[in-house]
Write a structure and sequence with these properties.
Layout lengths: L1 H16 L6 E9 L2 E4 L9 E7 L5 E11 L2 E5 L21 E4 L5 E5 L3 H10 L3 E3 L1 H11 L6 H11 L3 E6 L2 E6 L4 E7 L31 H5 L4
Parallel strand pairs: 7-8, 7-9
Antiparallel strand pairs: 1-2, 1-6, 2-5, 3-4, 3-6, 4-5, 9-10, 10-11
Length: 228
């Protein structure tokens, strides 16, 4: 029994210690208003998940989003699901037995880093679909925003199918879920520059529209560390 238990613990530790939470499946065990109970837990507190309703034998569609709060429990969050105009509306939108995918699109990650060297090291360290910050910079320019915020990151994630935002702060790296608006993982990170490109590293020298078309100065670490 001791040998079996030790083997089981060893097999679990690497999964729990992973910086990147896994995409996992569960299902709705029960719901009361916005409170949801899952049949199986998700890997990390704060993760977002999509809830999928079965319309027929082989037809499912995302009807809602939830935030996982731990202990098999979570809450529905306000985020518009993908529009399914050809499908009948579901009332209520969440039912017991509906499929839940925690960490939906978590392989698609936007990286916000202080410089090109840090950016290059990070994208080589993990096999992910890295979304270049140039795309986010263009998005901010169109939105007329100055720096990353919870609101514009959520909007960007919805439009470009982003699951996570990897944010390099001073001395550490954090994974931010833009849908749940929660940090889901962090780790120490060394070898960072004393100063970073403001508001974050991008290859674009100048964008001829919006806020980025004007010369602005600021501190990368201060701005990126105050995500509101």
């Amino acid at each position: 029994m001791r040998i079996v238990l030790s083997t089981l613990l060893l097999s679990i530790v690497p999964l729990m210690a992973d910086f990147y939470p896994s995409t996992v499946q569960s299902s709705v065990a029960g719901i009361s208003q916005k409170n949801i109970v899952l049949k199986r837990p998700l890997p990390a507190k704060g993760m977002s998940a999509v809830i999928m309703h079965r319309y027929g034998k082989d037809l499912r569609a995302i009807t809602s989003y939830m935030r996982y709060d731990g202990s098999n429990k979570g809450q529905l969050i306000t985020n518009e699901p993908i529009d399914h105009g050809d499908l009948p509306s579901v009332k209520p939108k969440v039912r017991a037995g509906d499929k839940v995918i925690g960490g939906y699109l978590y392989k698609n990650i936007l990286l916000l880093a202080p410089d090109a060297n840090t950016y290059a090291k990070i994208i080589k360290s993990a096999d992910k679909n890295w979304i270049h910050p140039d795309i986010f910079a263009m998005f901010l320019s169109k939105e007329g925003d100055q720096i990353p915020t919870q609101e514009n990151l959520q909007k960007f994630a919805n439009e470009y199918q982003i699951g996570l935002v990897y944010i390099v702060q001073r001395g550490k790296a954090l994974l931010y879920d833009p849908i749940s608006r929660r940090y889901v993982s962090q780790k120490a990170l060394g070898g960072l520059p004393a100063k970073g490109q403001f508001p974050f590293y991008m290859r674009l020298g100048k964008i001829e529209s919006g806020w980025f078309s004007r010369e602005k100065k600021g501190d990368y670490y201060s701005s990126i560390g105050n995500l509101k």
